[in-house]
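Justification of computing resources. Each target in the renewal requires a structure prediction run like the one illustrated here; the chain below, 255 residues long, is used simply to show the kind of job we budget for.
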Amino acid sequence: EERLDGREVSVMAITDGRTIVTLPPLQDHKAAYDGDLGPNTGGMGAYCPTPFVDAALMAEIESRILVPTVHAMRRSQVPFQGVLFAGLMLTAQGPKVLEFNARFGDPECEALMVLLESSLLEIVDATVDRKLEAIDAPRWKSGAAVTVVMASEGYPGDVEKGRPIRGLADAHSLEGVEVFHAATRPGAKGVGVVNDGGRTLAVTAVGENLARAKLHAYSAVRRIRWNGAWCRKDIADKGIDRDRELAAAEPGDPR
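Resulting structure tokens:
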């Protein structure tokens, strides 16, 4: 198998088998620990949109990868309706496919959903009825979203379950913050919510840019606690650094 060097990104599209609606590009963080160290996980966080995919590159991904894939499935008499998830490597030779999945990515989906202004139900209905072409393109909020996964002690190995989680209401009260439950369950009477697995919560926040969204997300994370809870501290840092590089390179910059 060919080795690919570059930066990994995620691009998802919704298709009814003919029409394709491409969603904003994202980047997730698979390694367990800061600095992309440690074992791979199901994903420790994500941010949207990623500045490593500009409009020109997005157009190339659509025309060279997504559209041909959907059309090839239709020509092969196996038309696909649903979410097509493309895991891509941005190489010096252009974007290359690492994998396809027939689903949303997690935790990428959480960062997408908080930015979506259109009705997801309308999009899904049009996909099922093969009428995507007849509805308006999805509307998206301006700004960015960051998702931080809070995991339980021991993940990605075995974890101790049933530990009470505190501070959920406090985190939910913050403007622009959503806390998505992944591995939780109701505890005994009077206990509230307890952890029930490794990737326990996906704390997601919206901001005017990636830096602000990260600030809001970690502000919410600090309000949530249970014995053994942990998370990466560097979610979206690469995107924030890239935003700063692009801003510094704009015309009129003294450098």
